[in-house]
Design a protein that fits this description.
Length: 182
Amino acid sequence: MTTDQIHIAFLRAVNVGSRKVEMARLREVLTGLGLGSVRTYIASGNAFFTSADSDPERLVALIERALEDAFGFEIPTILRTADQLRAELAAAPFGKTPPAADERFSMLYGSAPLTGTDLPVRSPKGDWEVLGTHGGTAFVRWRLLGGRPVNPAPVIEKMFGVRATGRFFHTSQKILAAAEKN
């Protein structure tokens, strides 16, 4: 007997510019794939579901194909189980100290393990720093420039040879809590 696991799908670059993805439609598409207990969290592309399928590559391919068919553009999807996200949050090097007023703590979720780079790595401008990794997740401290964070995801993708999307650390904590609610 197989037990359904809670999965968390992090969708990249939705509801920015012309890349509109209504959460109700997203839930319909995922439910139509036979995924169970489909829910979403905020409109930035976070979905939770249960599935007995434990092959993340197969699930990602299925989801990405269905999303492109439904919305008309590619939506890169990074998948974690609730257990994986819990372990990544526990491994985060941010400690209990909140970020300074000019910084943000972030988790960049990669599509594969992040290996082959000596850490920490800091951008030439000093606007972000990869403090460490855990599996496929990079822990990043952002510095605000002109009041805004700079997105290091494209650099992370190139550095590690993966697709990636990020969420602030505090948002990641809230995503896990929401995913585990019944």
